[in-house]
Amino acid sequence: MAEGRVRIAAVDMGSNTTRLIVADVTRDDAGNLAHEVVLRRSTITRLAEGVDARGILLPLPITRVRNALIEYRQLATEHEAVFVLATATSAVRDADNGEAFLGEVEHGFGFRATLLAGTEEAEATWAGVSSDPAMAARSARGTGLLVDIGGGSTEVLLTDGGTIHDRHSFQLGSVRVTERFLTANDPPIASELAAARAQVREELHARFPDPATPDLSIAVAGTATTVSAVLLDLPAYDPARVHGFTFTAAHLESTIARFASVDVEERAQINGLEAARAPVILGGLLVLAEVFAHFEIAEIVTSERDILDGIALMSGRIALDEGMTEMPQPFGNTVC
Questions:
Q1: What is the mean pLDDT of the chain?
Q2: Which parts of the chain are beta strand (E)?
Q3: CATH for the stretch 5-118+308-321
Q4: 14 DSSP assignment
Q5: Average confidence (pLDDT) over 257-275
Q6: For position 336, what pLDDT does the model report?
Q7: How many Cβ atoms are within 10 Å of 131's Cβ, its own excluded?
Q8: Strands 5-13, 84-88: parallel, antiparallel or unpaired by DSSP?
Q9: Host H or E run for residue 278
Q10: Do 307 and 124 contact (CB within 8 A), yes or no?
Q11: For residues 204 and 213, what is the distance between their CA atoms, to the nearest angstrom?
Q12: Cβ(9)–Cβ(68) under 8 Å?
């Protein structure tokens, strides 16, 4: 490729989902980066399973991630990516064996693996969201809120004129909230749902005690995209229809009520909900509902661009700075 342009891959080893993007990243004379997506893949691996209770990454979730990475390396190679940046977030931050896991990813797959702090995760998410020119333009016109609900954590960013002025990572995610509050009954009973909401409400109030209502609110990741897909009644996921879709607090509450009224098996059959997400989706929805209430949000816009796009830009910057021309080979086989 021409100077200032490189094909890279990036992997987001999230607490609930492991995802791949292959993209062409360009850098202009002013140093600004942009990317054009070649390929996306997503696999629910639930890396955070058991981390909240036991403090380690368990063998089965590690195996699920490893199997996804095998496929992702092959795809990156087939599409001639010259570099892969793999990032980890909440589950790996909280696990005593997280550093060893990242080392095995580097050794076994030839990826560069790095752990993002909560604030870095939030900033990468904003970089991804604002890589969409239309979303960036809307954000620049006033105050904004961005919420990213993952499996292990939730990041909330406040912006003013398109620039971050506050951000926080909460230990609240779809997997974590589910494991803490929503496993005793299927479907969960009202008191369990209320207890989960109360915990989220308490943590939001402690960090943002007197919030102003933003002019624009944006939500990313599987919880928000699922709400949009369900409201659109999509039999097959369509990112073009989900991106930019707007829903209200009433829409969200009706979705929560629908999901909470049926067990996991029946929930998994609902159009728009990925079946593997059915066991933990309510945990994420309750977090989102309390964000709506706390910031008195009227409606929220769903963005398909998120932290994975931000990681792609990070990967491209590294590849361009270091003159990458060929995918590094793994050092050896691994079972993580």
A1: 92
A2: 5-13, 17-27, 33-44, 84-88, 112-115, 143-149, 154-160, 163-170, 216-220, 246-248, 299-302
A3: 3.30.420.40
A4: -
A5: 95
A6: 40
A7: 19
A8: parallel
A9: none
A10: yes
A11: 14
A12: no
Domain range annotation of the chain = 5-118+308-321, 133-304
d(CA 39, CA 168): 30
Q: Which residue has the tokens 């790095």?
A: 114
pLDDT in tens, 90-116: 889 889 999 999 999 999 999 999 999
SS3 state of residue 166: strand
What's the confidence (pLDDT) of residue 334? 43
Q: Scanning the structure block, which residue is given the tokens 């993209």? A: 23
Q: What is the mean pLDDT of residues 208-228?
A: 94
Q: Do 53 and 69 contact (CB within 8 A), yes or no?
A: no
**What does the block give as tokens for 155?**
């990041």
User: Element (H or E) spanning 285, and its range?
Assistant: helix 281-294
Provide the residue count of the chain: 336
Angle CA 219–224–226, to nearest 5? 155
DSSP string over 140-159: TTSEEEEEEE-SS-EEEEEE
Q: What would the CATH number be for the domain defined by 133-304?
A: 3.30.420.150
Residues 172-185: pLDDT tens digits? 999 889 999 999 99
